[in-house]
Amino acid sequence: MIKVSRLASLKDIAQHANVSLTTVSLVLNGQGEAKKISQQTQEEVRRAARALNYIPNLAAQNLRRGQESTRPTIALFWANDIRTNLLSRFLRGINICTNRYQLDYNLVICSYMPGQLCRSSKLLDGSQFHGAIFANLAMEDLIFLERLDLKIPLALYNRISNQYYCVATDAYRMGTLVAEELFSKGRHQVGLVVSPATFDAVQQRSKALLDYFANHGCPVSHDRIITTEGKSMESGAKACETLLAGERIDGIFCSSDDLAVGALYTLRKQGIQVPEDIAVCSIGDGDPEISRYAYPALTNVMLPMEDMAVSCLKGVFDMLNHQIPEKMIHIFDTPLMVREST
What we know:
The protein is of the alpha/beta class. Among the domains are: 10-54, no CATH class; 171-302, 3-Layer(aba) Sandwich (Rossmann fold), CATH 3.40.50.2300. It is 40% helix and 16% strand. It has twelve helices and twelve strands.
């Protein structure tokens, strides 16, 4: 069941706990002990707040502290790993959404290590922000978030959950599109240059390509799958060198644009013609200009990150305004952009 928050008031809590509005205010502002309110009453107030999905009014708190801002605060949780270079594209989408819908808010970026979102628990009690976007969650993080049962509007970027608003792509379909493009161009001996699989989508893209070629009588041997140390162009160049030193290939799938640009560099350096000798195709998770201005221009399956960011932020604001988004699980199309490298 999708969770859409109900923003309860102090009056709601007072009625639910059968106490005065003043008592609720004192307890929730941490003054219960100072005002000698009994532990039992304090616990009843907190229990009522949890039951009613109460979210502290940060704007009111700011005013009490002498701050003028009455804007909601939105947190963006972004994994601190090889995907940090993708943050600029996501923020570009956030900016597009802000301007398109004339949104007024504070954005807080919270860094976390993959698999360790639980260590950010102090940020996840609902007292620091009104809504949140969670990007690049590891499986452990997603499980933690679902167990946490946050009572605020939130969106998951490129992850699927039955509990929260999700904005994602069909990872298996993306890999299939790459496979179809390479196979249709007569490339039957392909190799893979892939970054470490930190989440399921990376594995699904590669699996789709491997399944496709196996089903068409061209299985990819393990020796033709090179896992890089990182996601940089240098990593792609080195991995391509390793790939070329092995079995003969006529096509390369790279799990990111940066890896593909590195592979193109190695191919040029070794005098190999692209696409005549070896075709190259990638997943377009980087800046679109990278693929357009690579030499030769890079064929890729484009990850519409900016549009997905728009949907994430818009969904959070819809829920803040007590509106249910049109689709609670929004799967974006990922177009194949055919260019010179295939």
